[in-house]
Amino acid sequence: MAPSAQAHKRTHSLLLFEKLLNLRDSASPLTLILDTLEQSAQPLTHEFMRRAKLERAKIVFVSFATIKKPALADIFIRARGKSLKTLAAEIASHVAPPRSSSTTKETTPPVQKALILLDTLNPPSSQTPSLLPTFFSSIITPTASLVAVYHTDVPAILPPSLSPVSQYAPDPLTLLTHLATTIFRVSSLHHAVAARRARERSLAGPAWGLQEGREGVLVGLREWNGNLGNGNGNVQGGGGEEDVVVEMEMRRRSGRAVAETFVLCGQGGGRGCKVVVMGDHPEFFRAPAEVGEEGEEMEATFNLGLTEKQRRDREGVVLPYFDAQVEVGGGEGGRILYDMGREDDFDEEEDEI
What we know:
Pathway: tRNA modification; 5-methoxycarbonylmethyl-2-thiouridine-tRNA biosynthesis. This is Elongator complex protein 5. Belongs to the ELP5 family. The protein folds into 2 domains: 245 residues, P-loop containing nucleotide triphosphate hydrolases (Rossmann fold), CATH 3.40.50; 45 residues, no CATH class. The chain is built from 9 helices and 9 strands. A 9-stranded mixed β-sheet has the order 3-2-4-5-1-6-7-8-9, with helices on both faces. Strand 8 and strand 9 form a beta hairpin. Helix 3 runs parallel beside helix 5. About 8% of the residues have low confidence.
């Protein structure tokens, strides 16, 4: 049996997502990861670095907020307090320049790929947003890919020294999403499962974090190495501590966008993460007939099926005016037969009409 169009689309999207994670063929020069306080982008950035290490690519970690150097990073650059021009020059010094077309492959060794990872774009987006396009173009090369994180729930406070013309410029998030060739939006699997169960029961979806509108300290669902929930490393309601929902939006050169939602499942033991399409995850996959293993219908808020007794009762119901359809061929088809009951009030005037 030939695979369906939906199965072909899922397989194609999964292969594309793996290609982006492995930095193959410079599929995405600028990858933007959008996260929140409820779900950090660390699981996804860690997977980027792990796969870059397997590909023997140089990992340049640019820190605006990270204090300690990550274990997988080769180069650690502290960016706080530096201008974008100075920072771009320092990054370019650690990235191998692209090979010129005049040299041959026999005389020149292959150029090492590089992964440039920015832990957050919020500081430069608030200080000098107009310089971001120039900064990106100066550090992205055919052999170097840029992966940057932006916290969507952190407000961008623009400096008052901006010119009146700059006040009409787009906000930093709009500018970044326009420049990025691939956008990843990460969210909690626990939140997605809870929202899905609420929709199945026609209930209002739950809210977390800033959307709750509560005052006080905001505590996320879990940290990258923390254990919250049922005490064994898994969060109640589905998914382990490393399971993250990733919404992918990849812009091709033709302008067509490829969109799909995946679940990044942590396997533990340093084995990295397994990627599955969200519809194939155990928390979201449902059989077409919604039938259990023993043929029993799964629990739902309503049931469209009929029992054997209900089916027999429905077949034995006599429809109204059924007797008037018997003599259709005798010239009396369509006449209405009505038997008056004791509670009916006979009206002579109405009968004459």
